[in-house]
Amino acid sequence: MAPTLNGEVDIVIPTIRSLNFLENWRPFFEPYHLIIIQDGDPTKEIKVPEGFDYELYNRNDINRILGPKANCISFKDGACRCFGFLVSKKKFIYTIDDDCFVAKDPSGKEIDALAKHLENLTKPSTPYFFNTLYDPYREGADFVRGYPFSLRAGVPTAVSHGLWLNIPDYDAPTQLVKPLDRNTRYVDAVMTIPKGTLYPMCAMNLAFNRELIGAAMYFGIMGDGQPLGRYDDMWAGWCTKVVCDHLGYGVKTGLPYLWHSKASNPFVNLKKEYNGLFWQEEMIPFFQSVILPKKCTNAQECYLELAKQAKEKLGPVDPYFNNLADAMVTWIEAWEEFNAPANVKNGSA
Ligand SMILES: O=c1ccn([C@@H]2O[C@H](COP(=O)(O)OP(=O)(O)O[C@H]3O[C@@H](CO)[C@H](O)[C@H]3O)[C@@H](O)[C@H]2O)c(=O)[nH]1
Ligand SMILES: [Mn+2]
Question: What's the pLDDT at 348?
């Protein structure tokens, strides 16, 4: 189990509903600092349960802090959470949705999802050669026969992608035809996603090393006024995976699980996702063919190159991608404003 790293972790929560779910997480989250991004109407008062150490930002705060750059932060979409990634100063970020609760493992024990993510992030990944006994760094496991010794040190882990029991993260068409599906399968495994393979990153239960990959963990312009929604985490997942592959970092998926309680409205979701359902047939081949130049040696440089290529290759698909590529550049400008060693800024709430 990873040591408690509470001085090095921020928990980022986007909310347009309520924060009552925090009571369920109190034993695990109380030692940590929360960054709450209040979406929707900034005049609505959001109650934070007593005893939590937090900073809370609403749309007025985002506009005040970022000025004209605020247009790269989505409104009325969970994508707003990435503002929390921007203003955090910590090494690790854990982001969780406000309809997610503590799950139990098959033995009935409550799962400390954050501790498992920190364990995943502080142990290496193995993107270059698949270990058939899954996570070789786990207690009671190891590399299997035939695994090259030259690769057993692994690489730094940048992302830990957790899963969900109960309501699965389906897209709207799937949810419409299978409304009663519930995920009851607890798979006791953590796997490194091989280099060169993309995956559908869900932000419901996600942790990452902000120093390694934070600059690329941008959730795009989605929601209000945009032709696309609910592809925020997908876009960030494809971008970060391509950047991790280039920089030699690992991405893990699997444990920990949490309990996802609310099925969002599939008809509303269909409206938000509609363009994404066919644009993704263009987006994914784009990411599969991306080659980043050797001169890109950190997440910011990789991300700016990605923005350039996205504009060139996806701009012809729809003008939206030109705006998205521009927003990616604005995000890096904001990132550097907040994170360049010279002028480390605080997003005073
Ligand atoms: O306009 C909005 C809508 C939602 N939020 C907050 O974002 C998360 C996720 O919202 P929700 O639980 O309704 O969405 P799901 O369909 O269950 O989750 C999937 O969609 C992704 C949203 O893009 C999410 O990451 C996926 O897991 C909640 O905390 C809402 O309060 C918002 O801030 N603004
Ligand atoms: Mn949800």
Answer: 54
Proximal ligand: closest to the CA of 14: 1
pLDDT 10s digits, 167-217: 999 999 999 999 999 999 999 999 999 999 999 999 999 999 999 999 999
Per-residue pLDDT at 349 exceeds 80: no
Q: Which atom of ligand 1 is nearest to the CA of 167?
A: 17
Q: Is 8 left (phi over 0), alpha (psi -120 to 50) or beta?
A: alpha
Q: How far apart, in whole angstroms, are the C-alpha atoms of residue 270 and residue 267?
A: 5
Atom of ligand 1 at shortest range from CA of 39: 33
CB-CB contact of 233 with 206 (8 Å): yes
CB-based contact 333:68 (threshold 8 Å) = no
CATH for 9-338 is: 3.90.550
Nearest C-alpha neighbor of 228 from the set 309, 304, 327, 307: 327
Name the residue ranges covered by the structural domains of the chain. Answer: 9-338
User: 123: closest CA among 276, 3, 263?
Assistant: 3
The per-residue DSSP string of 72-83 comes to: GS-BSSGGGGHH
Extract the tokens encoding 178. 């299978």
Which-ligand-closest: CA of 219?
Answer: 1
Residue 242's identity, in one-letter code, is: V
Least confident range from 102-116, 183-197, 259-273: namely 259-273
- Kindly provide the ipTM of the predicted complex, given to two decimals: 0.96
